[in-house]
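Input.
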Amino acid sequence: MLEFNLDGKLNNNFDAGNAYQRVAGSEATSYGLGQSNDPLTPGAINPLTEDTLISPWEDAGQPSNAEGIKRNGALPQGHNDPATQRGVNPTSTSGDHNDNDAFSSAAQQGQRLAQRLSETAPIDQLTGGHQDGSAISSAQQTALADLLQLDQANPADLNTSPQQLDPLTGETQAGSFGFMPLPEITAFDADLLSYLGERAEVSNLLAEERFDRDQSAGTETHYNFTWGSGFSANEGSGYDITDSRTNAADIGTVAYRDDKEVIGTIGYGSGSNRDYNDYFSFYAGKSGTYDLSLSNLGANVGLALYNDSGSLVTWSNKSGTQDENISTFLNEGHYTSRIYSYNTSFWNNNGATAFNLDISRQADCFEQITNCLINDNSVKNAVLNSIKYDNLFDRNDTVGILKSAGDYGSVTNTELTDLQQFHNIFSGTMRADIAGLSKKVVFGDASNAWYTGYDSIRNELGNLEAGTSTQNLNLLIGKHMLGTDRPMIHTGSYTQAGGSLFVDGIDAGDIDQGATGSCYFLSALAGTADKKESIIEDMFTDNGDGTYSVRFYTNGQTDYVTVDSMMATRADGTYLHADAGDGTATNALVADNNELWVALAEKAYAQLNESGRLNQEEATNRYGIAGNEGISWGFTTDAITHITGLNSSWGNASASGVGATNVSSSELQTLVNSNRVVAAGWGGHARTITGYNATTGQYTIRNPYDRNHSTLTHAQLISLGAQFSWSNS
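Output.
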């Protein structure tokens, strides 16, 4: 056989590897193959035997024993009413406390801290949950000294542990709990990482190919020319790779706006052989109506379509030189088109012809809606590219669409409207966390006022609006979708954590409190892990790229946060804040193979706090070490609801249980023996009740510091002035 090159000239030396060629964006007329420009030299003599007309059914049962049809490699693959005021303020100087708090045996709501501590009462020898591990003396305690005054200029003074706080505040809700010791504090280098560095971090992430939805669409053109002269046009010498279904040329994936075109010739012969068939396989990228059109014909040629098993799907067989057309619904999968020649004339190749084969998919309802309602070309293109192969918007799709609105340096009013329109139409097709997080980007959120990032310096940001710069759009995407807006820390730095989300199941013992007053949250987290393990399991969605979507419940709604696995780290490489408990109360090395869920949950809670929906004194993206900072100190009842989505209640340990906020021994037993999250707090510190021993009458109480756990009777809890918080179901 002879072969045309891409300049329309005859090659002197035939190369079988070039018999099937693909060139994008060229026209048939460029190669002398228009209907009126037949490549066969007029008058060429080619004696042929009598041919029988070919039916599309004839080759339908042909077995497939080739390497297989390839898929295009470019395929993308209720809550009680909150208290109006806070509980104990650990920075207040209105009360006295130290590490060995004495507890009155008949504490009442409304007493001030100093008033309570002016009374003394003997108590049993009980572990107190202090970071230094000291026990509470059974001797009577004296009144506490004044609150420790810290000299901010004296690092040694800053590292002094403050005294304990009394939880009874006279409020209408359970008291606020935090933690007792302060962490080590060192000078913070404000220039560690600049705001510009944070912008670069997010921009570099968004530049990754997985978020690219800007690809151009159009027709991809392939070429397949055969001209017999001394060689078989019927695959006898192996030159024409399209002569059988098992040896069909793969032209790739067909999707809406990604059409395939083949320009070629068929019906030419040499000797007793004629090129009867040309087969082209393709992959239908998504279920829908597909159109196949065969045009530019100069002889009688038919068109057939087969499925992956070789069964005939449908065909078009018109007489003469009429165009052949197929329009049919196809499921996603591999298909093969067949062009077959009738060879009505046996002389001079008069039955041969050039052809144009076009294969396309019609727009489905999602694509039609996008075309109708999305106006900005960049946003529309990104949306359409995201649903080429399915009608679901995954995380990468959604990020790609969001960032497409910043293609010219800022977000226009049209682009903002289109993003909002996109979310309104398609959020129901998204995973719940993706829909919730992207909504914060597109429609705004209270947390959008600031961006903290990794340098622990708050910078103004703001909600998305017309005129928002591309850089600020990217920061909003990073904040909510990529987990780059990390909580403020007072010391140390952020480093990449090693390990897995869960190791050996989920257990209350997984929790080890770090250098922030989050015991109220961690005790609720431990109680949920102890009694409602599935809630913890479902709380996290692994995004597969080192980030996690973490679910909470605020104001009666599901609320999501994205966190990455960068963790606040001390100079010695250990966790600064909560990490996995191992029974030793020692902080693990961040880079080790750790269990991550506790650290991720606390970090996500700190990030969510910036929304103002957690009932904290300070709505900042901050861990905090003082009572008015970030998530340091809070209400256990709130935390139970934020974690579980269940309503919660609280009460005081009481012998009689009379009154709405008094809990008797039998009532507490019922709570603990049920499937409820139950926490107890005294001395300014919250703990988790995980069990009750009916023989000893003692409750098993876990300290979130991962040591100094307690087994106490109800009478002992009364003597401590304990308060309880529990989920209502």
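Residues 674 and 689 are 12 Å apart (CA to CA).
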